[in-house]
Amino acid sequence: MIEIPVEDCRVCILPVVNGIASEADRVREAFDGFDAYGVSLGIEGIQAIKGRVQLEGEFEVSELDLAYAHRMQELTGEQVEIPSPAMCVLVDMCQEAGVDVLPLDMNDVAFTELYCETVKAWDFVKEHRMAKKGMKRRFSSTTPLQFALDWDAYVNEVKGYKQVSEKREAYIANRIREVARIKGSLLAVIEAERADGVARLLR
């Protein structure tokens, strides 16, 4: 957990590894005692998690996501799940507690505009090749967290993808600042790859 005072708000960032079921337990342990709860998803992502039983099998997954899931499963022996179990648990627990989970990331329209403005057509075309190379690449990672960070660094060797990641971190940090102006405490569940960058911006 990364704890940062923002305005008069106690902000606790919980970095999670997407896809790993055991990460959900960390959310359960951290939950409770906060004025607000947020997750690094847009509003559509939260709604998709709420309706995931009806949407089973309909979540969009890129080739890079599939390659990540395969390599993560090789490392951990765990079935990698989509959507993120940790984020699903946060949404479920907020529903059970009768509180709203706040979207900290941009909505689909804003993200699509950002992606199209930032990622060059040639970078997008290279995604298939990157996914294939990622299936064969040697990573020194020995833990799920380290692999998630190493895979993120590999993907962000593409300038456009790195810029999208940085702009998402800036957006999430600004959303946290907005929440901090009106709440006394916030638990923010953020994928590990973006958590340190968001924390750095908040500091």
Structural write-up:
This protein is of the alpha/beta class and 203 residues long. The chain has one domain. It has helices spanning 23-30, 43-50, 63-76, 85-97, 108-118, 121-125, 127-136, 144-155, 159-180, 192-202; strands at 2-6, 9-16, 36-39, 101-103, 185-191. Strands 1-2-5-3-4 form a 5-stranded mixed sheet. Helix 3 runs antiparallel to helix 8 and helix 9 packs across helix 10. The longest helix is centred in the last third of the chain and has 22 residues, at 159-180. The protein is globular, with a radius of gyration of 17 Å.
Question: Could you write a compact summary of the structure shown?
Answer:
The protein is an alpha/beta fold and 203 residues long. The protein contains ten helices and five strands, in the order ββαβαααβαααααβα.
Strand order of the largest sheet: 1-2-5-3-4
Order of helices and strands: EEHEHHHEHHHHHEH
Query: What composes the largest sheet?
Result: 5 strands, mixed
Please tell me the overall pLDDT.
91
Which key features would you list for this structure?
10 helices, globular, single chain, 5 strands, 56% helix, 13% strand
Architecture blueprint of SSEs:
Elements: E1 2-6, E2 9-16, H1 23-30, E3 36-39, H2 43-50, H3 63-76, H4 85-97, E4 101-103, H5 108-118, H6 121-125, H7 127-136, H8 144-155, H9 159-180, E5 185-191, H10 192-202
Helix pairs in contact: 1-4, 3-7, 3-8, 9-10
